[in-house]
Amino acid sequence: MKLPLKAVRRAIVVAPHPDDEIIGAAGVIQALRRQGSLVRVIVVSNGAASHPNSGAWPPERLIAARRRESLLALRRLGVTRDHVTFLGLPDGGLSACAVLCRQRLSRAIRQCRDLDMIVGPAMTDAHPDHRAVAAALRDTRFAGRRMTYQVWPPQRARVARGRTITLAGGAAAKRSLIRMHRTQLGAITDDPHGFAVARHELAVFAHPVEQFVEQGR
User: Fold this and answer.
1) How far, CA to CA in Å, does 143 sit from each of 47, 165, 199?
2) Which stretches are transmembrane (predicted)?
3) Residue 132: which region, alpha, beta or left (left: phi > 0; alpha: psi -120 to 50)?
4) Which residues are within 8 A (CB) of 204 and not within 5 positions of it... i.e. 6 or more apart?
5) CB under 8 Å to 90, separation ≥6 — which residues?
6) Residue 175, pLDDT score
7) What are phi and psi of 78, to 5 degrees?
8) Per-residue pLDDT tens for 154-182?
9) 37 — phi, psi (to 5°)?
């Protein structure tokens, strides 16, 4: 069943890491912007933990690069820098700072008035940072629609009670957006234990049909 968006005029998309907003919700962002709706994006963690042993990419450089990657990809979807908030919380440590995560996220959400919808990670996601953000959103007071997306593990199975939206441009467009996050796709080569999206994972992430589950209010 298609995700209805016509009544949504102002929305927030929450990403645990820089790139989750593209992997999980590029189609929603695109559809909302094309109908003239305001979209704000909140990126919770700083993204610094993907390559902890890289000498060429110390945390400060990696954080700055990952922010630029998100901003460039979001600009292609019609979201400008002034509508993107980076909370800068520790990547890989959101569970350990759950109270701070909830406080910072709630404050950022309150700054967007007359909000109709929040889109964020699901509690069923395999990544602990994603679950920590989902828990923070669950505990944030909000009377509008709540939609969730799942990133990990990558899968294309049909989600029960799921609503879908398709990114215009298909898989090629989704893949192109994801590839803007070069630091997560093998561009950093001096950390043998660093993270990189595998080819089979990219194939799943690039699927243009995104799935969402609506949460009870």
Assistant:
1) 30, 23, 40
2) none
3) alpha
4) 154, 155, 156
5) 45, 46, 48, 49, 96, 97
6) 98
7) 95, 15
8) 987 777 678 999 999 999 999 999 999 99
9) -80, 150
Strands 162-166 vs 209-215: parallel, antiparallel or unpaired: antiparallel
- Residue 69's identity, in one-letter code, is E
Residue type, 26: A
153 and 197 Cβ atoms separated by less than 8 Å: no
pLDDT tens-digit readout, 88-114 = 999 999 999 999 999 999 999 999 889
The residue type at 114? D
The packing angle between helices 20-34 and 170-178, to 10°, is: 130
**Where are the alpha helices (H) located in 139-198, listed in sequence order?**
170-178
Whether residue 22 contacts residue 66, with contact meaning beta carbons closer than 8 Å, is answered with no
Tokens of 37: 């709706």
Q: Which two tokens stand for residue 164?
A: 């879908």
Q: Which of 16-30, 52-66, 160-174 has the lowest mean pLDDT?
A: 160-174
